[in-house]
Amino acid sequence: MGGLVSGKFLFLLFVALVVLGPERLPGAARTAGRLLSEFRRVTGGLQEEVRDAFAASDLAGPVQELRAVRDELRSTATGLVTAPFAATTASNPAQTGGPAGPGAGPALAPIGRWSGDLSLPPGDPGLN
């Protein structure tokens, strides 16, 4: 939601001060606070009534089943995504030559016959 004292809020406060003046601004702020409080109270009561009506309806059971399936799928998908990285973070970075520390990423195994040496072998025809 952002900080309470943002640029937009300060601009709104400045415009209200210019339009209402310093005498009427505190009263207008109190009125706005009361209206906001009343609005929150009314919408909270409405939400509670809708929840109660939904719980009493025939749709509550199937929706709860769908939510359970959704949660199970979400946990399975999260496990599938994080499982490949669990093995690389558990390995010793000194053995694999990878970076150390949290968030350093997975260590990569050497590819090819050079075992991490990136220079070209002597007598390679690619040097010509």
Q: Can you describe what's shown?
A:
This protein has a domain at 14-82. It contains three helices and no strands. The chain has helices spanning 7-56, 60-90, 93-96.
List the helices and strands and how they pair.
Elements: H1 7-56, H2 60-90, H3 93-96
Q: How is this structure best summarized?
A:
By secondary structure, the protein is an all-alpha fold. It has a domain of 69 residues.
Q: What number is the mean pLDDT?
A: 76
The number of E-state strands comes to 0
Characterize the biggest β-sheet: none
Q: What distance separates the N and C termini?
A: 62 Å
Secondary-structure element pattern, one letter each: HHH
Unreliable sequence segments: none
Q: Report helical residue fraction.
A: 55-70%
Please, what is the oligomeric state? single chain
User: What fraction of the residues are assigned to beta strands by DSSP?
Assistant: under 5%
* Helix vs. strand class: mainly alpha
Which terms summarize this structure?
128 residues; mainly alpha
